[in-house]
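Lab notes, practical 5.
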Amino acid sequence: MSRTKLVRLCGGMLFLLGTWVAYTQTPNPPPKLTINKVKDDLYEIVSSNSGNVAVYVTSEGVILVDDKFEQDYDQILANVKSVTSQPVRYILSTHHHADHSGGNVKFAPTVEIISTANARANIVEHKQPNAPANITPARVTFTEETAVYLGGKEVRARYFGRGHTNGDAIVYFPALKTIHTGDLMAGTTPLIDYTGGGSVVEWTRTLDGAMMKLDFDTVIPGHGNVTNKAGLKTYRDNVEKLRNRAQGLIREGKSQEEVGKVMGAEFGWGPTSMQMQWSLPGMMAELK
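Output from the prediction step:
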């Protein structure tokens, strides 16, 4: 191969890599965010490509669950202001991924951000390979459970175990019997982030613990439409079905490529999806 062709090939590869990294870190331009009412004083801010934000309005300020990408900051504030004049006082982070915690960098100077200790460590240790370099960890952490009381209202955050990552918090609004799952429920199929400590084996146990110990009827997922406890149970059962199918194939001696084809055909994993990149190699090791 000539030097000119080699330079052009390398340049093209770098361009494609740069495009992919830019897309996965901070989509450009940012999609329009919309706000929907879930229950009394509880709303969600949604978009097509980043995590669902919960907005809980109190007489003394607003509590958010997650804050999307950094570039979504202005739209998040605009949507909050469309339902209340109160300022954002707290953010409870469900986990470390940039589409849920990327806005920390803009909120941190004025808002108290709280996460699990593991979620903070995952940010500090740069466990998400395609995360922005400036992603900001929480200043306040917990290991098992914490609560925020504001304007006579209570919000709890609890760690039930590994699943999507090793630091997933489920946020509970006890007065409204509502939870925000983060990406312990997201879309139609699980993404297991093994670099971030995730586990497809423990995922169902984690959801079982939440469903047994929390009194709720409404579920705000990390991505997707608001649902109910039955919807979460269906999602949990699908995770179990996927795990059992993959484990059976792996223990039959099937290759990673063969397992990947089944995951694509039966569970909708696209050939270049994050599931294929992040989850499949880890499953091959965890389920052997």
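Observations recorded by the TA: The chain has two domains: 1-28, 31-240. The CA atoms of residues 248 and 254 lie 9 Å apart.
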